[in-house]
Amino acid sequence: MKLSLEQMIERTVNFVQDFFKREGTGHDWWHTQRVRKLALKIAIEESVDPFIVEMAALLHDIGDYKFFGGNEQQGYKTIARFLHSLSLSPEATRKILNISTNISYMKTLSGENRSHKEKKSLEFMVVSDADRLDAMGAIGIARAFTYGGYYHRPIYDPNIPPNPDISQEEYKTTEGPSINHFYEKLLKLKDMMYTLYGRQFAQERHHFLELYLERFYDEWEGNK
Ligand code: ADP
Ligand code: NI
Asked: Whole-model pTM?
C-alpha cells in the first residue's frame, strides 16, 4: 500500500520520538520539533519542497555520531533503513538522506560543508539554517548549559580561555567551560546562515547572545 505524504510524516514523527526518548544532551524531541517548525517557515519563504524539508528536519539528528558511540556510518544506515520502509522514490530518499546526514556543525569544522557551499541544495540550506538558529538566542543558551551540565563542565573559568579556531577533533573532545562554547560555536553561527530569512532571524538571536555575555561578566564581577 502506498502511503500518503501525511502518513509518511506521521510515521517519521513516531520513529524520531521513539529514538529520542532517552536523550538528555539537548538533542531531544523538542529540539527536532523546533527545527521542523522553523525549517518549514523558511521553506515557504524560499519556495522549496516542504515535504523534503520537513522529513530531513525530523531526521536530522538521528545520524549524530554521539548516539552511536562515534560511529557515523551506523546513523546513516539507521536513516536509510527507515526511509526504505516508507517506499519513497529513490530521488526523495537520496535528498532526505543527504541533508539529514550532513548538516551537523561538527562537519563544518572539517571544511566538508564550508568549501562546498555553492553545491548544497536549497533544501539543505533551509534545514541547516533552522538547526543552527536553535543553537542561538535564549534557547541556544539553555541548550549550551544543558549540554555542559550533562558532561559535568563548569559554567565558566576565567583561567581557561576559549579557542575560537577550534578544530573538528578538539570540538568533539573539549572539556572546556560552557561559556567557551559561545566563542567556539554560538557567536560564529550568524555568519554561517545560507538563506536571507535565516540571516534575519540570526541577527536578533546573535544580539541576544551578546547581551547575555555582557550581563554574565557583570554579574561575575559583582558589578550588577
Ligand atoms: P549539531 O547537532 O549542530 O552538530 P552539536 O551536536 O555540536 O550540534 O550540539 C548540540 C547542542 O549542544 C547545541 O545546542 C550546541 O551548541 C551544544 N553544545 C555542543 N558542544 C557543546 C559544548 N562543548 N559546550 C556547551 N554546549 C555544547
Ligand atoms: Ni540539531
From this structure: 0.91
